[in-house]
Specification:
The protein has helices spanning 20-31, 45-52, 84-92, 99-107, 122-135, 198-209, 227-231, 284-299, 304-313, 340-349, 367-372, 374-381, 405-413, 425-435, 451-459, and strands spanning 11-15, 35-40, 56-59, 72-75, 96-98, 112-117, 141-148, 153-156, 162-166, 181-184, 217-221, 237-243, 250-257, 262-269, 272-282, 322-327, 330-335, 358-362, 386-389, 418-421, 441-445. It is α/β, with parallel strands linked by helices. The strands form three sheets. Strands 8-7-9-6-10-11-12-13-14-15 form a ten-stranded mixed β-sheet, sandwiched between helices. It catalyses: UDP-N-acetyl-alpha-D-muramate + L-alanine + ATP = UDP-N-acetyl-alpha-D-muramoyl-L-alanine + ADP + phosphate + H(+).
């Protein structure tokens, strides 16, 4: 297998180069002097940008795209062995590498590579940390799973030894990574189409933690069940964080919220007061996320004034409690939450946000997740005054009749919550315009395309 060495650039071909993650990695390699080519099924802003930077972009995936001058072919999980380009690469004896493996290999080229993992909060925490690193003039390379305004996209190519990325547990892809600093925000059941149970998920996170070198650091949420299972035998050092608990290395005390629900807290380290910090985002879960970012910044010897400044400039990533605007006097927020814990955290954050009735338009994400957490989804969404459920967003799955969005609506009705199933987005918009009142709060929620409803309402 190739070891990606920035000092020895080669020709790398990306199958599916237009994806948000693949395009970001291609951009980094282009800036490091690599020859980059790639194919996709259609043109996009991302492929146009890469083309303007010098990448050779090919539309369609055919065997002729795989030329003899290619040294390495990178592919995603969406590419199958019967793909024409894949077969051509095998036939020519050209090495193939998964996207996650490439990202892990690239980490070797940075002294301080940071990987942010967890069932929830990866994008927000990576974004928070990015703001801190930029405030400290560390010139980091950043790859994040969402659009971040401060870097005008999902990728920033820096010229220092600092690299920060999200690390996803799905298909165990983060076990390909080689970070010096790892963050584990939480460990819960998810991706049950891949994992068998919570024990298998915990084992995966344990393996991820133990990939750290001896001079590395694990930043671990102290509220995770039985953390000794994770850290026993760990070569690297570790620190913990959490809310109002002096047993943790970093803790937040004296928490308060301003009129818009933004958090303020006193930071304590090992039981001693450090400073008072303010956030420009909502919710207790974001105070927890901030504590993990503080711990990483402390390990990198960034001054507290830099940490405070960075956190204050962060007002959220796209689709993370994102303010969209107003319509007929009610406020429209969009959030990516698609797991019961995420939904609960987001709706809890609404308690400190000014509103009268709370409305939620929820689009379930994947059939396996909806079926696995049907009762938990219903309980979380029952915190709203009014809920609209639309069809399940299939993503990578096919509808086998396992579960229907109507099943979730029926479960929510059992809690006495006003709920209805509406399939068509335009019908949802009409219903909202007729029934949502001035000073109400509407949240569109889910990992699919439900955000388009809020966008249309604000346009109106």
């Amino acid at each position: 297998m190739y070891q990606i060495d920035f000092k020895k650039p080669i020709h790398i071909h990306f199958m599916g180069i237009g994806g948000i993650s693949m395009s970001g990695l291609a951009e980094i390699l282009l800036q490091e002097g690599f020859t980059v080519s790639g194919s996709d099924i259609r043109s996009s802003d991302m492929t146009e940008k890469l083309s303007s930077m010098g990448a050779k972009i090919l539309m369609g995936q055919v065997a002729e795209n795989i030329t003899d001058d290619i040294d390495l072919v990178v592919y995603t999980a969406a590419i199958h062995p019967e793909n024409e380009e894949y077969k051509a690469a095998v036939s020519k004896g050209i090495p193939l590498m998964k996207r996650a493996t490439l990202l892990g290999q690239m980490m070797h080229n940075y002294k301080n590579a940071v990987a942010v993992s967890g069932t929830h909060g990866k994008t927000t925490t990576t974004s928070m940390l990015s703001h801190i690193l930029l405030a400290g003039d560390t010139d980091p390379t950043i790859t994040v799973g969402g659009i971040l305004d401060i870097i005008d996209g999902n990728i920033r190519v820096g010229h220092s030894n600092v690299f920060v990325t999200e690390a996803c547990e799905y298909t165990n892809s983060f076990l390909e990574f080689f970070p010096k600093i790892s963050v584990i925000l939480n460990i819960e059941e998810d991706h049950m189409d891949f994992f068998h149970d919570i024990d298998e998920i915990r084992e995966s996170f344990k393996k991820f933690a133990h990939r750290l070198p001896e001079d590395g650091l694990l930043v671990l949420n102290g509220e995770i069940d039985d953390i000794s299972y994770i850290v026993d035998g760990l070569k690297a050092g570790y620190v913990t964080y959490g809310i109002d608990n002096d047993n943790f290395t970093y803790t937040a005390k004296n928490i308060s919220y301003d009129s818009m629900g933004h958090g303020h807290f006193d930071l304590y380290k090992e039981g001693s007061f450090v400073d008072s910090l303010s956030l420009n985002v909502n919710g207790l879960h974001n105070i927890n996320n901030a504590l993990s970012a503080v711990a990483v910044a402390d390990f990198l010897d960034l001054p507290m004034e830099t940490v405070k400044a960075g956190l204050l400039t962060f007002s959220g990533a796209k689709r993370r409690f994102e303010y969209k605007g107003t319509c007929q006097g009610f406020t429209v927020i969009d959030d990516y939450a698609h797991h019961p814990t995420e939904i609960s955290a987001t709706l809890n954050a609404c308690r400190n946000y000014p509103h009268e009735d709370l409305w939620c338009v929820f689009q379930p994400h994947t059939y396996t997740r909806t079926n696995a957490f049907l009762d938990d989804f219903a309980q979380a969404l029952s915190k709203c005054d009014h809920v609209i459920i639309t069809d399940i967003y299939a993503a990578r799955e096919k509808d086998t009749g396992l579960v229907h969005a109507k099943d979730l609506a029926e479960k929510i009705k059992d809690f006495g919550t006003d709920v209805r199933y509406i399939k068509d987005f335009q019908e949802i918009e009409k219903f909202i315009l007729k029934n949502c009142k001035k000073n109400d709060l509407l949240i569109t929620m889910g990992a699919g395309n439900v955000d388009s409803i809020g966008n249309e309402l604000v346009k109106k």
